[in-house]
């Protein structure tokens, strides 16, 4: 039986709308991806916000670290003018706004939530995220991922039955050891490294997802190998190629 490779919309559909904003997530949902991927940071006054970078410089008209800004300062920024065509007036969503959006959309797939503690320390953010999810009591599934293995260990301790993935450039023996010990369930590896490790593509690999797959040839290779999933910025293209290689039916 062919494994259906999951399509994960990277920061929403960031190829067509400003990443990690509500328009990007709405655009992604039009293609019914298996998962929505997004990132969470925390402001200086304790609010969880949805943004990828530690700084606001790349994706807004502001400058500075998220950790040093208040929510009011974050919400005053325009998060749409960096994108062509510009989407003036788009703001960085709070985690609450994002979860409310998913509820309004009747989202029923999987949320892939990246805890962004690999460069900035946010003590206690893991519990805050889990508590916030519990508050909304979603019917959809949540998969937690991070480059920071300590964050993954904390999530496992706080919520033993959580689905957890380690973000890595390449899965070293120590990464596989932690997976075997149950610290996390899945490994999410860089496609650039996987391409240099062809044995990964020999047979279906049920625990491996790969990021960020935007090249058509790479997509075809992943789909033909039956990897568990791919994180992509090109949701429409991935949907088209999966239909061609693996058929229409979802898992």
Automatic annotation (TrEMBL):
Name of one Pfam family that matches: GDPD
GO MF term set: phosphoric diester hydrolase activity
Taxonomic path: Bacteria, Bacillati, Bacillota, Bacilli, Lactobacillales
Protein name: Glycerophosphodiester phosphodiesterase
Superkingdom classification of source: Bacteria
Membrane-spanning segments: none
InterPro entries recorded: GP_PDE_dom, PLC-like_Pdiesterase_TIM-brl
Gene Ontology biological process terms in this record: lipid metabolic process
Stretches assigned to the GP-PDE domain: 5-242
PANTHER family: GLYCEROPHOSPHODIESTER PHOSPHODIESTERASE, CYTOPLASMIC, GLYCEROPHOSPHORYL DIESTER PHOSPHODIESTERASE
């Amino acid at each position: 039986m062919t494994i259906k490779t999951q399509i994960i919309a990277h920061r929403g559909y960031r190829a067509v709308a400003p990443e990690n904003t509500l328009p990007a997530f709405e655009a992604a949902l039009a293609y019914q991806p298996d998962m929505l991927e997004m990132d969470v940071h925390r402001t200086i006054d304790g609010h969880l916000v949805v943004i990828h970078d530690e700084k606001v410089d790349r994706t807004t008209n502001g400058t500075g670290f998220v950790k040093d800004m208040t929510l009011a300062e974050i919400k005053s920024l325009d998060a749409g003018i960096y994108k062509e065509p510009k989407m003036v007036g788009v703001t960085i969503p709070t985690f609450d706004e994002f979860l409310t959006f998913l509820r309004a959309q009747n989202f029923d797939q999987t949320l892939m939530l990246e805890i962004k503690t690999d460069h900035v320390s946010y003590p206690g953010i893991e519990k805050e995220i889990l508590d916030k999810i519990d508050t909304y009591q979603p019917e959809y599934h949540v998969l937690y991922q991070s480059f920071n293995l300590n964050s993954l260990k904390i999530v496992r301790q706080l919520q033993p039955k959580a689905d957890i993935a380690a973000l890595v450039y390449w899965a070293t023996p120590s990464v596989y050891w932690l997976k075997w010990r149950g610290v996390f369930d899945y490994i999410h590896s860089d496609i650039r490294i996987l391409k240099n490790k062809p044995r990964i593509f020999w047979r279906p690999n049920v625990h491996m997802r790969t990021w960020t797959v935007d090249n058509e040839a790479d997509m075809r290779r992943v789909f033909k190998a039956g990897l568990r999933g791919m994180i992509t910025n090109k949701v429409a293209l991935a949907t088209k190629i999966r239909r061609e290689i693996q058929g229409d039916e979802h898992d």
